[in-house]
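Deliverable D4.2, example record:
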Amino acid sequence: MKWKCVILDDYQNVAMKITDWSAIADKVEVTSIHHYIENEDELVNTIQDYEIVVIMRERTPFPARLFKRLEKLKLLITSGMRNASIDLQAASSNGVTVCGTASSSEPPTELAWALILGLARNIVVENNALKQSGPWQQTVGTDLYGKTLGLLGLGKIGGRMARIGKAFGMNVIAWSQNLTREQAENTGVALAASKEELLKNSDFVSIHLVLSDRTRGLIGEEELQLMRPSSFLINTSRAAIVDQVALMKALESKQIAGAGVDVFEIEPLPELDPLRTLPNLLATPHLGYVTQRNYHTYYKEAVEDIIAFVNGSPIRTLV
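Output generated by the structure prediction step:
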């Protein structure tokens, strides 16, 4: 008898093509689902007969109540080695092994710069005008050279952001609650004395923090008021780090020049969400990690995780 495996949220229909699943074909029957299942009852009805579930990042959360309803589930695989939407304690209590995969930090770094450049040079506005036979050159771009890039977080991604910013000739400053002057100087950037100082002095503020109790709501109405009317906010980390209502107000009132956002509190973003209507918001549908190299790694290592589990020796377990 074969194990049954389902891949959730394969939006681009690439999971079965981007890596070789033949290594488990004799022991595991694999199914891929290409659409998002929003309703939990529908989700349970769809996957309740599967012992193995492969999920993509945090697209489909796995809270405690879901584990209780999936009695046949034995192995849950997530792309990446960290997934805040999985209740790991509940997984363990219900006898479910959770495994992860490697994930590269270069793709989200590259997307953050795509958002910065898109905002600075009004790429979408000018592209749309050109294709629709609109005005020829209707905007004046913002220079990066000589401007200040403020980084909230200077970890793996933040460090890469800093190096690229310096290559553009930008002044780079950074702040986080645990960041020391020595760590900042080792990366070649200046340590801002406080979050407030960074917001006041930056032309571009880019967030590269992990969502936690300390970072949830880190940027609210008061913080946005500190930013310059000509400044831009970039968030490719987690939506909840920024108060979404306050951000929308700041954009509507042009308290800040614009924002580049890749993450939302509800994903996929509802069709009638007002964020979709803001002209000074450059938004992408959580594409930070969505690249060929990352996808190849995710699904290749998912196959390895399945082989190891079926053989009785799970690897890359999350606890």
